[in-house]
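We treat protein structure as text, and this decision shapes the records that our systems exchange. The remainder of this section carries one protein's record, kept here as part of the documentation:
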Amino acid sequence: MPWIGFVFLMGHMSVNHIYRQFANTPDKVDITGAQMVLVMKLTGFCWNVYDGRLRQEDLADFQKERALLQLPSLLDFAGYVLFFPSLFAGPSFDFVDYRRWIETTMFQVPPGTDPKLAPRTRNQRKIPRSGTPAAMKAVVGLIWIFLFLKFSAWYDIDLVIGSDYMKFGFLRRIWILEMLGFSTRMKYYGVWALTEGACILTGLGYKGIDPKNGRVQWSRLENVNPWGVETAQNSRAYLENWNKNTNNWLRNYMYLRVTPKGKKPGFRASLATFATSAFWHGFYPGYYLSFVLAAFLQTVAKNFRRHVRPFFLAPDGQRPTEYKIYYDVLSYVVTQAAFSFTTAPFVLLSLPSSLLVWSRVYFYTVLGTAASMAFFASPAKPWLIKQLNARTRTAKLDQQRQQAQQQQQPQQRQLLSRESTTEEPIMGGGLPSDPGKELDDVMREIKEEVEVRRRRGVSVTMPTGADMKDAVENKLGRKP
């Protein structure tokens, strides 16, 4: 049943996508945006019903949490599908979230929670107060839309496909391409902030209490993190912060569903997910240019993160080195520049316009991606792996040596404490540490004394044996 529902829904939406593309009438009302949200909801609902028919031991944790053991009433189903705050632009969510919201079980405080941390409610309502966070989202959304109106007047499609674009230098053209993408993203930031705020106002955006600070979280239906996108240092961070609910839908209801039980997702899962995402967006050639290049970008970024980034970390892989800041800055610039190039066809849509703009910046991302893939396909990759392994082995040996030294330090301290109880020049029994040297010193002093007296004209008589004995004992400290 779920695959039948998936094919029907995607097929019906594809017909509307094709009609919109060939009609090309911007003045007409476009329903494909709302239909894309409905496809996510309804295909997810099909899988949730299907999971409810399976044995619990055959389900993953996520499936157990979302499975529907019995069908909802027609009223509940219609309320879920036509939930107005997210009807036209999302965000999408599963029926289990809607049911928990209707039954207010979503707002139950976990057992053992400090009553002081329980979210405040109005009168007898169970839904926490959400007016303030909803209003903040509305303000943020309006600011984004205002900025979109201003920036889109400065950076638009006509600028990059017009002849004046080539009057700028290469770096300036890249900057304009980046600002074109940024101004386009502002539109989505604004719309998604407004719809998320509407969901928060109803209470559906409630995500519990943050255990770290005790504050109520309203990010259950967050669809985009603008700061995470604009400051991303790699492709993974860029994509994870963009259109989050669509990413969740693709992962949970396509990527993991085409993978046989007991096996890890592989090429087939990735290909099916890529095709689904492409058909879901529509059939403009620009979509496919962006998706294909983004797939290669992810592969390159993964190689750099695995085989280059560790050189800028301590051998334990946890602590950054003093050069890590340079890697972070460079990776940020490269990531943002690469995605401004990659997402340009997503804005331009048509194949001629996309290739024209790419050629005007000399296909820099395509060439950089190709060069990087060739680099990691060469002997350079095994060499990097060898260097990293040697670095790790050296670090382990140093760690073992330090541990051995730490174990020897207590023994050395005990030995030093024993030696410090005896004066260093005196050996056991009261004898000097070097008796021969002491005797030589005594004889030298006697000869010097005799020589001095002779010079003075004083008669010198050799000491008797008793005198020599007394002198030696006095030198050795036997007598006071």
Observations:
- Residues 380-419 form the longest helix (40 residues).
- DSSP finds 20 helices and no strands in the chain.
- The two ends are 112 Å apart (CA to CA).
